[in-house]
## 1
Amino acid sequence: MTQDRMTSGYRGRGLAFKLALAGGILALLAALSMAGAGPAYRTELLSLGDAFSMLRYGAYTALAAAGLGLVGLLIAAFTRRTLAALLGGLVILTSLMLIAVPWMQLQQAHSVPPIHDITTDMQDPPAFEALVEAREAAPNAVEYPGEATARQQREAYPAIQPLVLDAPLPEVLAAVEAEARDAGWEIAEVGDARLEATATTTWFGFKDDVVIRLTETSDGVRVDMRSASRLGRSDVGTNAARIRAFLEALEQRLTS
């Protein structure tokens, strides 16, 4: 009987390590799948739908890895196998971190309205000129969507407002161009009082177009900005965040 228990214990120890190791392999495959989804779409190896499927299957694989890691950890704890327990814990932690990426994106998508065109001037949005052809070739419209989008923007992003700067217009325009280049945007056109550029997201390479319009007023130079995605019904808050960050950086550049 004692010999049988010892044999069972040794088997349990080996099983714990094997399960944790299998979980680690699955976690690695999940990481490769999820990390590769964006580049695969950017390089046109996959369609957007297939890239999202790759991301989803990667999350499922990470969930399976977490399950194997948990079982391995429990067996390792019962059989007092420190190495297997550490490996199982590491697999669980890694898998949960991988699962958190799409989960956080999903939560963000649910917390913002399904719009993709944000501007500081909803009554007279800055219009695209140099980027008209590029936007006409994309699914989303060139023209501002209208009052339905404006209403949702007012409710979700009330802080998106024009910026008024106490500086000469040429100085503001130079600062706008410098800030756009620092942000890594592709400049399409710089006019006497406007700038158009394209921002590309890091992971999937989504292209969002930006137009900035400067207007001289009695209080200074008013800066209006519009950021619009070429693809997708919802931008998951990206365009509003871009406008906020850009205007804050521009103001700091000119007032510091």
## 2
Amino acid sequence: SPIVMDIATQHRIPLEFSDIPQEIATPTGVALLANLVGSFKPSISVAGINKVGYGAGSFSLPFPNLLRVMLCYGWSKNEYISIVETNLDDVSGEIIGHLIERLVDLGALDIQVLQGITKKNRPSYVVQVTCKTGEEEKFANLLMKETGSLGVKVRRGVERITLKREVVKKTLNLWGHVKEVRIKVSYDSNGEITNYKPEFEDIKKISRELNLPVKKVYNKVMKEISL
């Protein structure tokens, strides 16, 4: 109906059209969605289900006229990202290293370089770049410009599940030296700490300053941390 279309347009509610000659989405139902739902996603990943409710309609439809609502608890943060990928079999390791630096400078969320074999039985690199939605083109252009690749693959709408995280600064006494170390802490959906570890760049810096092995500094910091 025009009212349904108007509400859906104003609140960006996705609609799926069908050839059923009856009103499936009513103004009341769509209005409830507009007021109760914060965002709409093509799919969700949940950690578990708290409650399930069912309702039945009176219309005779070619499928069961039922509505199911689930109250779920999920991960701390779900987001949608894109992956830009290309295969390379004619570039050197030096170019790959330079490419990674350029991708980091451009703001890539993550970068992976995998080894592979092409259809012509040549060793190759598979470069995968994780980026924010809407940034696919700039990373695709950089990949082709820096490597000479003739094309890239783009996967949009990839769901990424991440835990809530924060960085906590700790002042520690390490072998008589006072050092500040950043600690990365992650939490589950209930707010419980799931993991923590020191920022490795800080560990390397302290290792150089004290002329000690990185592993020894890391173990000492982990022992001194109290969260």
## 3
Amino acid sequence: MSQRVLVVDDDRTVADVVCRYLRHAGYRVEHVSDGPAALAAVAETPPQLVVLDVMLPGLDGLEVCRRLRQRPDGIPIVMLTARGDEADRILGLQLGADDYLGKPFSPRELVLRVRSVLRRAGGEPAGAAPEVLCDGGLVVETGPRVARLHGQELSLTLREFDLLAHLMRHPARAFRRAELLERVWGWQFGDQSTVTVHVRRLREKVEADPADPRRIVTVWGVGYRYEPADD
């Protein structure tokens, strides 16, 4: 059965184009026009992914994102933001959006982003062998996409999980933000603040003191590296 995508946008022209391209790509698509309707649709029949506009009547997309992230199922979210509206984009990522596109955008690019996020949500890319990454009480299993810290399962978004797994695969190696955008997000171009926001969120979940990180450390003038725990 094809995967189901919920499109939440009050601009009928944009919504019609998005829905048409997603259906042509093989997805089952439902469209609603406001925040309360989006929450009701998810509660009734959870989709595999939500395409969520920020500017919505009744309840804006950022609040919808926040409420969806309170659910235990971790439905992937791709947010649509106004071009150049950095504050909304960063806040959306902080609230747990998995990806974003700025308007105006290419519908073909949106389909590619949706496909990429859904592939990651379904497990490892084709041909990749599952791994179990362990360090100092932190365990990441890439097959079932589960991360635990001292036995307690962590609630990570898709991108947070992918970023953590990538850094743990390459301990003590410093990565530039542009490298992480390409390796984790698959973007050759993009706003590097995306990486900064995800690192901040990860630290809140894996560090004993996020203000004094010992696992995901900043390499000034370069980017970030994963520092293995002392044995």
## 4
Amino acid sequence: MKKSPLSSLFFFLVTVVSLSSLQAHDTRVYELRTYYANEGKLDDLVARFRDHTTALFAKHGIENVGYWVPKENPDNKLIYIIAFPSRLDQESMWKSFQADPDWKAAAKASSKNGRLINKIEAVFMQTTEYSMPIKKIQASPERLFELRTYICNEGMRRHLGARFRDHTIGLFDKHGIENIAYFHPMPDQEGGTSTLIYIVAHESEEGREVAFGNQREDEDWKTAAAASVERAGGRMTIEGGVTGELLVPTDFSAMK
């Protein structure tokens, strides 16, 4: 049967929109890195990143996304996210960075009074299909960020993702919680099939308390939460599997 011009146009528009959506999805590989500084060495570590490391990352094609320290920081942590075009690029870019004589000189000079780092944790991630584009905005006044991690029961992450996609993200916006980005660890990483990692931002700690309080009391949220648990057939996250940490951007962060 011959297609009408109208139906052909509709098919064309749907195809264009679908292709645009696919092309718009962020395919970069992100790395979330947490450095635990030795006692009394956090300021020196932050200074090394400010004065040397971030510029050397950029020199070798590594994208600086954001740098933070926890608001409450008893473990002397520096947390940051960098990005690469792919895992293969990550390997080559990181090797190139580590072999750079300028990096070796900066590392040696900064450690002359003792080793700066006690421990490093790292996870490779990619954005979820419902994540928004990551915008490196230096807001004034600077925002308070929050890094949140959800560890799901087996097979439950898709249900959790559907709730965020269809309800939670919109409700966060409604109540003044700024959505920054949503990630899944890559399949070969710990939590690769069970973990959701995301970042939101707040105007202040007081504003955060008000916003989350309002979101929890929102009837739309209560309905969505109950319906999603019913569809999933039970609790989506493991006991104690939801954690969060308030983060303050460093003075050199591309995202504030």
